[in-house]
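Internal ticket #5521
Category: modeling
Description: The requester needs a full-assembly model to guide mutagenesis choices. All entity lines are attached below as received. Residue total reported by intake: 894.
Assigned to: D.W.
Attached entities:
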Amino acid sequence: MRLNSEFDRRSFCKFGAALIVEFCVPLRGRAQTSGPETGLRANAWVTISADDKIVVITEIPEMGQGTRTADVMMLADELEADWATIGVEQAPTLPEIYKHLHTGGSGGTEATWMPMRRAGAQARELLVTAAAERWNVARTECRAENGTIVHSATGRHFRYGELVGTASKLPVPPLDEVPLKDRPNFRFIGKSMPRVDTPAKVDGSAIFGIDVRVPEMLYAVIARCPYFGGDLASCDDAAAKRQPGVRAVFRVPPIGFTIVAPDVGRNINVAAGVAVVAASTWAAIQGRNALKLDWRKGPGAEESTATLRKALQSQATAPASVVVMDRGDTRKVLQQSAKKIEAEYELPFQSHATMEPMNATVHVRQDGTIEVWSPTQIPEITQSEIAALAGVSPDRVTVHTTLSGGSFGRRYQFDYAAEAWQIAKKMKVPVKLLWTREDDMQHDFYRQYCLQRLSGSLDEGGKIIAWAHRMVSTPIRSVFDSAESLKDPKQVASQEVPEAPFPYQVSYYRMDYAPVHSVVPRAWWRSVSSSLTAFATESFMDELAHRAAIDPCEFRLKNLNGDQGRNTQKYRAVLELAADKSGWGKPLPKGGGRGIACYMFGETCVAHVAEVFVDAAGSLKLQRIVSAVDCGLAVNPDSVRAQIESGINYALTPILSGEITVKEGTVEQSNFHDYQVLRMTNAPDIEVHIVPQGKEPGNGVGESGVPPVAPAVANAIFTATRIRVRRLPVDTNLLRRS
Amino acid sequence: MASIRLSVNGKINTIDVGLDTPLLWVLRDTLELTGTKYGCGMGLCGACTVHLDGEAVRSCQTPLKSALTKRVTTIEGLSSNRSHPVQKAWIAEQVPQCGYCQPGQIMQAAVLLAKKPHPSRNEIDQAMNGNICRCATYQRIRRAIQRAAEGERHET
């Protein structure tokens, strides 16, 4: 296996101006030999050198989700490459060439499915033509096979490296015309391949943002205003400046804090703070500890979790700001129903808490060019926004995308890069800004706080007649959008309500929304509103099933809306597979219970069966989660399983222990002692089963595993205890039965 | 500050760093051994785990002065070429996702297996409970430790 750290290290050494300046990619016309080595740069995504080494350029930032490996697999399959010869590099920020320099919404593999295959096929076609020319035979007599071109009639062959000189002189066939392989001929796609980044991640050589080191670099931390929207009142930095190693202490102003200045309209929120720049990280932290600071509380001085809850409860019954859908007069039907069921579900703020805290290294050069090294989901947005802040054109800004130590939506922001830029422009030398864990937990863009009120009614046969769903939340859009844009209530609600069609058949259906204002920054947390709405809708389905005295799995199957075509098939397939594999319906020992839930995220449908045990004292043990997923074609099945496992585990933190609370407009938690995340002792056994369907990748799997976990667990707790959990994290005091 | 001698991965380094500096930052900033990661600074997450005379310690909670007379081993020194049984098992089970916490997980697991070559599941869970993984690769970590233990069994 040669997919190893040497390649990553080599590419990292090339980071810096050299790679970028020398990078010259032919989009059409003739292939070119690359750099000083003799090699074939067939296109922007693949280089083959005379010693047979293949370097694949991948665009989607790698943050643990495995897209880099999928991208290599897709290209290598069409190239008929020898897997052992492949290395990988992260694409530079040249957005006119690389169109997928961002990842969000679990769309990475889907987005690069055709581009990476076409790039591999284009290189293959060049090599076939080159071999045919060298042998002076027809192209059709030659075939590509595991890093060689073979002449079928004679068995003669060329290694790819032997053909790069000839291939470099050939006209390049257009990307959208190159022939692609049929599914039965895939060698890598659809098979579980080892991840290309694994070796460097077990020997410490993988380079994350925090590991970046550039010559003359200094280290910085910032003391940020703990009150959202607040500001610095006074700063005594004398002791800080006396700390050994401290080079500079200065104020950094807030940027675009839209809660305070809603007309900024740019996706950026940087708190007011004081930067400490030093010769080492520890010196910077010690310098910060020596600062004497007073802060002015901001507009959220009176805001707390208690005041927010009160506002959410009030909005649960207030007039809606947006009626997303109202089929029939749902509310009237429900009012007149004798068998109306109502329930409220509450989910608090959550932190992303990536293992690698936010950080960025920035060098503002004297010639006005800016280099950024950053773990990020959005290299090209970081490039354009830093350029906008600096008042230069984006091509003056280079963003080197490092590995990310987890993202989960947090690195869809560029606030930390903006902060590092603010410091670096003063220092003239490169500066690495590190957020400590406390900074990270107290200045996150949190998952929304929400309250959802559901009402429903059933007929005698257990079919749902009416369903009304009120979502009340602290909306994401009002953190980022301009005041003008926020005048439209639909825009405010746009990321708070379900995206997928309601999967169940109901005669009367209403979905509406009401917002609650908050100073707490919110943004995209793994699966966004789906983790909120899934908890409410799939818990409520369970409540209806028990009211109807029908098995909850059967109740779902019976009520599926048969008019949704392929979607209905997906729901049915994952529900049946998860039920079958989990032993649904078979008895469990005393205290045990199973719960089922399903959800569609994008095009990917997932069902989980959770198996829990609750003893008389209320102690909750998660035994097992059995999952079924239909994600279309699974490019790398083991990676799909890994992502579903990860999504399940990630979702368990807010179920078991995680909660961000607010007091006087500041977050009360600061580190892993008071924001308790899932640890190994509470990690259940997980089985993931993939529905073997689809010719193409669907909407990915990074987030899809998350939404159905909370309702599956809550429903299992109900089966075990007859106690309904409607607020998370689970308060085990409420589960006590002795 | 005087010159200080520190043994890391079998090599003696002469450095000029305050004695109260956490070993974590000496390794990362001074010696450029960035495989050891910062995660919490409070000994709560295990990302900074290294070996001190063969014991797993949190380097963020270990002042330089308490490491001076000891042998420090980091992920870079665990093996050459990823050949330690734990590293091999990590690759075989495809454990890492983002990979950030994995050096700490691997260093913790290596000490567990050195002391207890055939740990039970409960012993694995207890020994690894101080190491957080936010991609939550816990199930694969468990399997990898079991695999590494099985490998030891086969070799003896």
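Resolution: model delivered.
Comment from assignee: The two ends of chain B are 49 Å apart (CA to CA).
Ticket closed.
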